[in-house]
Amino acid sequence: MNNIHPLGLFVALAFCLVIPQPALSQSEKLGTVGFTAPANWNKTTKENIVAFSKVDANTGTFCIITLYGATPGTGKPESDFRREWANLVLKNMKADADPKTESTVENGWTATAGGSAVDSDAGKAFALLTVISGGGRTVSILSVFNDQAYLPQMAAFNDSIDLGKAVADAPAPQFQNGNGSGLPQLTIADIAGEWGEASGFNTRYVDRATGVYAGADSVHFTQKMTFTSSGGFADDFFGLSNGRKIAGNTTGTVSIVGRVLTIKRKGLAKYVIRGWQELANMTVLNVCGPWYDDQPIPEHVFTVPDSAVNLDKTWVRKK
Fold first, then answer.
1. Residue 307: which CATH number?
2. pLDDT tens, 90-105?
3. Could you list the residue range(s) of the whole structural domain that residue 230 is in?
4. 112 and 17 belong to one structural domain
5. By the 8 A CB rule, do 99 and 128 touch?
6. Is the link from the previous residue into 298 a cis peptide, with omega within 30 of 0?
7. Is residue 135 located within the same domain as residue 218?
8. What is the pLDDT of residues 196-247, one digit of tens each?
9. In angstroms, rounded to a whole number, what is the distance separating the alpha carbons of residues 87 and 64?
10. Does residue 154 lie in a domain region?
11. Is 156 exposed, middle or buried (0-12, 13-18, 19+ CB in 10 A)?
12. 133 and 249 both lie in a single domain
């Protein structure tokens, strides 16, 4: 890692915000999020995500800035950060599980930033995550880099983000608390329809004694689940594991008892319903799990929304 000083990172980034920034290209939009792309960086996009990368083949330095568009929040900025850190960083890189964070508030939005040194597929680097929370939504910016010379470009990109005023499209996801209030009882009819989920991870292995590279695993998947109002279930799964295609279609039944959604195929997969949100163009269902067959669900999963965040999943049904 070249010239990275983690303890001074936030100070350096804040300083970059008040000095002249590099030239940037024209403004763009990712859903409701406005931003200005770094000039002459490589750009890649997929649904609700845009990434910019810069690599210097001569020096081996690199920087990847990824913007994740607006998604439902938990209602608490620190909880939003912990969830996004677990999903975007810990699932893909070896990193500090609980990094120090700093927060600022402006125009109804709370920006929470934290970072740590990481081991990634590209080698040793530093990951800086900024999660902006407000109006029941979150927007995340993840920068992974190995030279602090990229700090001005990172600061300029963060500074270009335009979210407007933090006004919710709909009430924020409602999390039921310990006395059973806050989340209406969902029925099979409520969840009937086609739901989608996409996820993945990359894991890099090194020899514990020598530190020499010892292989890697890469798994990415998309899943389409269909629930019927009569309790039927169908699953259309497609994934790639280390370049090998995995596909399958299964059927079964679904039931809801209290806050536990159970899918029955050859065995049982149980999920705790944690949130439900109606947006203009989609419905979002937040669940935690699965727990299989007779495996007990810990009580704290029902009463503490921040617990077991590594098992949280977001299912989306388009309107």
1. 2.40.128
2. 988 899 999 999 888 8
3. 188-318
4. yes
5. no
6. no
7. no
8. 865 444 444 445 555 554 454 444 446 789 999 899 999 876 554 445 555 5
9. 17
10. yes
11. buried
12. no
DSSP-derived secondary structure for 279-295:
-SSEEEEEEEEEEETTP
Low-confidence spans in the chain with pLDDT less than 70: 1-26, 166-182, 197-222, 237-248
The total number of structural domains that make up the chain? 2
Q: Has residue 180 been placed in a domain?
A: no
Structure tokens at 227: 């629930």
User: Where is 235: in which H helix or E strand?
Assistant: strand 232-241
Residue 12 sits in the same domain as residue 152: yes
Backbone angles phi, psi at 12, to 5 degrees: -65, -40
Q: Is residue 114 part of a domain?
A: yes
pLDDT recorded at residue 24: 45
Residues 94 and 221 in one domain: no
Same domain, 16 and 89: yes
Total-model pTM: 0.54
DSSP 159-202: HH-B--S---SSPPPP---TTS-SSPPP-HHHH-EEEEEEEEEE
- A 10 A CB-CB count for 230 gives 10
pLDDT of residue 247: 54
* The predicted structure's pLDDT at residue 248: 62
Q: Which helix (H) or strand (E) holds 5?
A: none
The Cα–Cα gap between 88 and 158 comes to 17
